[in-house]
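Contributing new complexes? Match this layout with zinc ion.
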Amino acid sequence: MESLKKALIFLLQILYPKQCLICGKLEQDTICSKCYKNLKIEGKIDVYNNKSFNEHLYLFKYEGKVRNMIIDYKFNDKAYLADLFTKTILKNEKICRKIKKYDIIIPVPIHKKRKSERGYNQSELIVRNLAKNLKTELVTDLLIKQKNTLPQSSLSKKQREENVKQVYKLQNKQKIENKKIILLDDIYTTGATAEECSKLLKRVRCKRNISTNNSKRYVRLEDRSRKSDVRCKKTEDEN
Ligand SMILES: [Zn+2]
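Output block (do not edit by hand):
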């Protein structure tokens, strides 16, 4: 059985050789070393004492190639790019060490109508891969988006804050009691979405929360170390 499986994989590799998802070069990995270098990964952690979260982890600036890839990932049906983003996060030891400190990882939800049109929640795909690789518990039925809002990218700062108010709902609260939480979103700009999600999570007594954004104008991960909350920051183009 095992040898059959190996033979099948070998055959598939001949028929569909692996390529770097950015430049298309034949490559065993999802991304070749040259493209990986060109991504200009920041992998930073910002610490806050005036927000609902304590830390915010992020990987990229939302510009150039990364920006184009995120737009393709969200709006142009390129769900396979989730693999590339996940690999990039997994290659960053500092960020992975931080994520592993948390008990639960959750994605920022999108509205069910949008999910059905797009076919996937871009943050959830990444979170699923991360949870599997880092052995962190994944919870996807905690936050739900109950209103289908306008894309944040089309709005001003003030409008973005209004646009996400009372849009999210928290359910299955018992799952996060006394847990440390990390929340992943794709893009962070003003922090409106993250703030809303955090407020809800904050109401449940948790040891700690984090929020993670894939990109902000950054790809970010946020971590909050307060006794009880998670906050997210904001997101551009979010959902
Ligand atoms: Zn490449």
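Reviewers usually confirm one structural detail per submission. For this one: The chain is about 35% helix and 20% strand.
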